[in-house]
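Format notes (please read before filing issues)

Several people have asked whether sequences and structure tokens are stored in separate files. They are not. Every record keeps both together, in the order shown below: the sequence lines, then the token lines. Line labels are part of the format and must not be stripped during preprocessing.
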Amino acid sequence: MSMPLRRGTLTVAFSAAAALLLALAACTQSGGQNTPPTVPVAATIPVAADTRTPPPTVVMVPTSTSLPTAAAKPTPTLAATSTPVATETPDPTATPPPPTATPQPTATPIPPPTATPRPTATPTTPQPDTTRLDLGAGVFLSVSPEAAIAGRDVSFSLSGLPPWDRVTITFIDPQGVPASWITDEDVRVLEQDGSEATTIVMYPAASGVLDWKRYGAQDETGAWSMDIDVAGGSVSITYTMHSLKLSDVETVSLGTLLTRHPAPGFDIYYSDLVPAALVVDLQEHLSDTALLLERRTQTEMGQIPDVYLAGNRELMTMVSSVTGIDLGLEDGYYINFGQRPGIFMRTDLTGTEVRRLLTHEYIHHIFDGLANERTLPAWLTEGLSKYYEFDTALSGPRPDASRLRQFAATDLARTAAQAGALFSLAALESQSDWNSRTDRAELALQYAEAYMVVRFLNETYGPLSGKDMVVEMGRGSSLSTTIKTVTGLDLGVFESQFNRWLVKWEDRERGPIADYLTALEVILAAESANSEQRAENLNTSMTAGESVSSRAALVRSTEELIDSLHSLSPPDRAQSLHDEAEEHFGRILVWLTLELQAAETQDNTLLKAANAMIPELRARDFTLKRNLSNLQFIFNIDQ
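Then the structure lines:
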């Protein structure tokens, strides 16, 4: 018998279950400070030292290691004061020479662009759709678009910066509250205490350029400001988030007032708190997704359903009550019955999440049509929606935001399979049972398991096997008959083979990446050991010959590490990280060679040149290890 269908999407439930993973991966880990020796030992050559306490930073997954420190300078200076928040990788401390050196002398820093705070920046001639601001001292800030729109991202670029100097960025909302920092992967960065980070640290390379974005899917209209600090010099600029003006005037009452926005072939109805730009962008997204899915599923797309957007969960509840839906934890649902069939969803999510949610519900619409209104097992319809939700998102903008959530789902299901804790397919057959579950761990697992069942189907029996099952059931076949037709297996055998497949499953792309990162971490650990050995050498009384020998050993060890690095074959996704590592180790070799030559020749100029490289080495080390950790985070690789 044909039944009206309702498909709910529990993206919040899935995200909540994965929240611990995402939060832990996004947390900043503090690196402990190395304590300088209380009794300094004479250094061979007195030159400028750099043993500053590292400034605080927040990154997604920093790695604590030891960084290089210059030899000491005889004139004592005060070291920077540490703060109780997350810190960058600490530096080992050099031994200061007698007679008056302090345990933490500080080298002269690279001059910042300006030492005087400026409340506003002076605009210069802008490029098309870009505002260019002169911050002084040859530093320029570009903001694009020139007129920022609420609900859309804003791009920023600093140029003319002193290379390798620490830069911090903080956004302030129209209420004067620092805004949380959202990464390219649509993850809010967390401090160690679990609070949302509002400041991010970056380092410009030799080009003196830094680029970043404000992912403002939920940024409100009004005057925003951005505080930029470069090596102690600060500047604050203000930009305005405008609301996109639409000519929509027709409204309907559906638990709350909704405004109608006509789109080619369908309508979008949106409530208060939904940015107008998001309405337009989701219209384009849905039209593009329909064309993409037509190719991916080899299915002719019919009429696109109307879409109803609610600005938050409270408004969503009002709308759902009028459509006859008792809203649970769903962020969205699709119905094909009633006076207003269509897609219903909330929009107070991150930019990539709201697009995946719309895609997910639209896929329900597609396969419900292919099923000729016959009831599909929940694991099939939800698994197909999750499968194509990820499939289309991974080919779109910001794919890593979806990739990390995809791997969170795959690994959740695999872990359950290995523990013998999967649902039976029979337990995931009823849509009403599916929608009634309220335990967040169960909610996450049922979506993850359904997704992996469809992956098993499509990767084992052909890329359209999941669709073929829907078509077969749409002809009136039972589930067991359909499984037999598509796979040649009885339902019980199919389920057993799926379980065995999932226990051993590994992503083909992730495996080589994980192997490469493991090898790279071994090399980085050896470099950290060299750094610690260098610090120990500086704190040990040596003859001139012993000093030369100890430094020569560090140079030889670094050359061996570079050979090991050259022997690695990085997969494509890790190639840029590999290039970054080779550049970093090349600079370490130059630095250690300068120190060796200085010890051999007693040439203070060479040691000063080595000291001058320390800001670059610190910045490269910080950035390399942050990027390595970020790649581990995206692919859910154990750290």
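For reference, the curators noted about this record: Residues 70 and 389 are 52 Å apart (CA to CA). The two ends are 52 Å apart (CA to CA).
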